[in-house]
From TrEMBL:
InterPro entries assigned: AtSIBP1-like, BTB/POZ_dom, SKP1/BTB/POZ_sf
Pathway: Protein modification; protein ubiquitination
BTB domain span: 81-140
Any Pfam family matching the protein: BTB
Protein name as annotated: BTB domain-containing protein
Length: 246
C-alpha cells in the first residue's frame, strides 16, 4: 500500500516537532518514508527573507567554470597582460595581479621597488618555456592533466620556489600515485629534498614493505653512494623495523 501525503509548502522547520505530519491511515507494520524536497530555503535567525539553498549552489556551480574559462582566455589570448616572463628558452605574457594572488613571492616582487616592478619583466631562467606555460595554466586554473603529468617535477620546483602550497600538495599526490621500480629512488630523493612526508613514506614502503629493494639492488647500491646520510639512515631504520616483524 502506498500513501501519498499532499504537498506542503512554506512550512518553517525550526525544530524536530516541525518534521511531524499527521497520517490518517493507521500503520501497524514496517514502512518506508520517502521525502522529496523540491525546494529548501533558509532564513536568518533574527528574521528576513528566506533564500533557496540550491539556487546559491547552482549559481556557484555554473559560475566557477565560467570564471576559470575566462581566466584561461586572459592568459592564452594575452588580454591586458602587464608582465613579461622570460624563461630559459622563450617569453610569455601574464598578469601581475593574478600571480600576486597565487604566490606571496610574486606579490612581494611586484609590491616593492624591485626590477620586476620597474621593468615589468620577470626572469625565470631556471625553467623552460613549456614548464612555465604549465605553471601559468595551473595558476590560472586551466591546466590539462597530461601537461601536469609531463611537467610535475618542474612544477614542484616552481611551487617550492614561489611558495604555492596547493601546487606542491598536488604534485605530491600525483607523484605518490605511480611509484614503480624505475622511479622510486628518484621520488625518494625528491620527497626528502622538498620535505614531502607522504611521498617519502610511500617510497620507503614500496622499497621495504613490498620487498622491491631486492629487485633493484644495483641501483640501490648506487643510490647509497650519493644519497643524504639522514635519508640513508631512515631507510635502514625502516629495513630493521621490517626484519623485526618477521
Amino acid at each position: 500500500m502506498a500513501l501519498t501525503h499532499p504537498g506542503i509548502k512554506d512550512k518553517q522547520l525550526k525544530g524536530k516537532d516541525d518534521f511531524v505530519w499527521q497520517v490518517e491511515t493507521p500503520l501497524t507494520d514496517k514502512f518506508i518514508i520517502e521525502v522529496e524536497f523540491t525546494d529548501l530555503k533558509t532564513a536568518p535567525p533574527n528574521g528576513g527573507e528566506p533564500h533557496s539553498i540550491w539556487t546559491k549552489n547552482f549559481t556557484q556551480r555554473e559560475s566557477s567554470p565560467t570564471v576559470l574559462t575566462s581566466f584561461g582566455r586572459m592568459l592564452s589570448e594575452s588580454i591586458h597582460t602587464d608582465i613579461t616572463i622570460n624563461t630559459s628558452d622563450g617569453s610569455i605574457q601574464a598578469h601581475r595581479a593574478v600571480l600576486s594572488i597565487r604566490s606571496p613571492v610574486f606579490c612581494r616582487m611586484f609590491s616593492h621597488d624591485l626590477k620586476e616592478k620597474e621593468l615589468s619583466t620577470l626572469d625565470i631562467s631556471d625553467i623552460s618555456l613549456e614548464a612555465c606555460k604549465a605553471l601559468l595554466n595551473y595558476i590560472y586554473g586551466d591546466i590539462q592533466h597530461e601537461d601536469f603529468l609531463t611537467h610535475r617535477l618542474a612544477l614542484l620546483y616552481a611551487a617550492e620556489k614561489y611558495d604555492i602550497a596547493d601546487l606542491k600538495d598536488a604534485c605530491q599526490e600525483s607523484l605518490t600515485e605511480d611509484i614503480d621500480a624505475s622511479n622510486v629512488l628518484e621520488r625518494l630523493q625528491v620527497a626528502f629534498f622538498y620535505q614531502m612526508p607522504k611521498l617519502k613514506t610511500s617510497c620507503k614502503q614500496y622499497l621495504v614493505k613490498f620487498g622491491k629493494v631486492f629487485d633493484i639492488q644495483d641501483d640501490f647500491n648506487s643510490f647509497l653512494q650519493c644519497a643524504d646520510k639522514e635519508l640513508i639512515s631512515e631507510i635502514f631504520h625502516e629495513i630493521i623495523c621490517a626484519w623485526k616483524g618477521f
